[in-house]
Amino acid sequence: MFKRSLLIATAGITLAGIVGVSHAQDSTFKIGLILPMTGPFASTGMQLESAARLYVAQHGDTVAGKKVVLIVKDDTGMPDATKRLAQELLINDKVQVLAGFGLTPLAFATAPLATQSKTPMVVMAAATSAITEASPFIVRTSFTVPQVVTTLAEWATKNNVKKVVSLVTDYAPGVDSEKYFNQRFIANGGQVIETLRVPLRNPDFAPFLQRVRDAKPDALFAFVPAGVGSALMKQFAERGLDKAGIRLIAEGSVTDDNILNEMGDVAVGVVTAHHYSAAHDSALNKKFVADFAKANNGARPNFMAVGAYDGMRVIYEAAKVSKGVGGEVLLNAMKGQVFESPRGPMYIDARTRDVVHNVYVRRVEKIGGQLWNREIETVSDVKDIGKTR
Ligand code: PHB
After folding, report:
1. Backbone phi, then psi, for 297, in 5-degree steps?
2. Which of 333, 324, 388 is closest to 27 using CA atoms?
3. Are the beta carbons of 70 and 81 closer than 8 angstroms?
4. CB contact burial 300-315 (16+ within 10 A = b; e otherwise)
5. pLDDT per residue over 349-380, tens digit each?
6. E strands, 291-354, where?
7. Distance from the CA of 324 to the center of ligand 1, in angstroms?
8. 97 close to 23: Cβ distance less than 8 angstroms
9. How far is the CA of 178 from the centre of ligand 1 (A)?
């Protein structure tokens, strides 16, 4: 106990001193992957870990002549745990990179440690706009909520949606979803008749959906994090919102590819915007989906998986350039990388360290007996519009 609090109390001083020195002589290249492997967001952890391991399996476990060591830690989705695990990975394991971060609060909790220790921190999942501003050592390979919801708002305006109710999970990416969707929709002449926020932990959608039904919008606009969409969809059908003629449009996490097939026919026709669909038509994506399924009992990769897969790509290529050295050299080699991802073309903006990629409007369709997010429109090279600078 004493050792732990001393570690935490002195972390600010020791991190700056210890980390970095031992990297150069080491024959390993260590990546500390912190993920929610248990608890309500375990599906996110499973997707991220499987995709990171797939990248290593496909590209080899040596980079710049060093053996790649992936150290996976379970933070159960709690920020205090993420921070403690990051400290341990930095001080005890001397990792060259911190990666993962399944939810926004987990990324924010760790950002100061990345700055103090000058360790690149690759955000593979969390999507609140402001995350990349929390540390100059953060590089993001997931997506940003403003990128996708503004694209959806444009689509809604053009497709006869005039009145919406918004319903979001009550934490940072939900607040971003509400703000950026509603702002753009209203600017385009639409009307937001009610804004609802549901709790992050153990949400009960029923009373909120009853209010949506009573408000009679043309559409419900929704955001819930990965893994939670099937509960929302079930309640949407049970409350008869579909029968009442209320359309569901959503941030793409709602029709998460990993759980889409569980949702049943109520999901058919739901329109979302996102940066990745497992149905994306490219040779690289087909191989990614097939290899992921093969390694994971037939499971389908979702957007979390692609964030981890691309994050590993960014780390590997940067490590080649830095010759396995960590710190700022490694960080700088991550900036500006341009490549083809299973999601389509993408790059890391060298100035913001944030991801730039296509955003797809997708409609859920039943194809060959399975539900897919079929891409119906593409907006190219979308940057985050939520940045304050
Ligand atoms: C986030 O916490 O930033 C987050 C998590 C899951 C999502 C989207 C955003 O599906």
Report:
1. 50, 40
2. 324
3. no
4. bbbbbbbbbbbbbbbb
5. 999 999 999 999 999 999 999 999 999 999 99
6. 338-341, 344-348
7. 31
8. no
9. 14
The pLDDT tens digits of the residues spanning 111-131 come to 999 999 999 999 999 999 999
pLDDT tens track for 229-239: 999 999 999 99
Residue whose token pair is 């106990």: 1
Residue closest via CA to ligand 1's atom 2 equals 103
Amino acid at 216: K
From the alpha carbon of 224, which atom of ligand 1 is closest? 10
CB atoms within 10 A of CB 162: 13
Question: Ligand 1 centroid vs 336 CA: distance in angstroms?
Answer: 24
Tell me if the pTM is above 0.90.
yes
pLDDT for 12: 47
* Ligand 1 mean position, distance from CA 157 (Å): 25
Cα 228 from Cα 345, distance rounded (Å)? 28
Q: Whose CA is nearest to atom 8 of ligand 1?
A: 225
The set of protein residues with a Cβ atom below 6 angstroms from ligand 1 is 103-104, 126-128, 173, 225-226, 253
Atom of ligand 1 nearest to the CA of 131: 3
Q: Ligand 1 centroid vs 17 CA: distance in angstroms? A: 33
Taking the centre of ligand 1 as the mean of its atom positions, its distance from the CA of residue 36, in whole angstroms, is: 12
| Average pLDDT of the chain, as a whole number | 94
Measured distance CA(128)–CA(146) in Å, rounded: 8
Ligand 1 center to 62 CA (angstroms): 31
**How many angstroms separate the CA atoms of 227 and 82, rounded?**
20
Start-to-end CA span in the chain (Å)? 42
Of the candidates 316, 298, 296, the one whose C-alpha atom is nearest the C-alpha of residue 70 is 316
Q: How far apart are CA 12 and CA 41, in angstroms?
A: 29
Rounded-to-integer distance, Cα 193 and Cα 186, Å:
11
C-beta separation of 72 from 329 below 8 A: no
SS (H, E, C) 216-227: CCCEEEEECCCC
- CB-based contact 224:193 (threshold 8 Å): no
- The DSSP string of 219-257 is EEEEE--TT-HHHHHHHHHHTTTTTTT-EEEEEGGGG-T
Q: Which residue, judged by its Cα, is nearest atom 6 of ligand 1?
A: 225
Atom of ligand 1 nearest to the CA of 256: 10
**Closest ligand 1 atom number to CA of residue 128:** 3
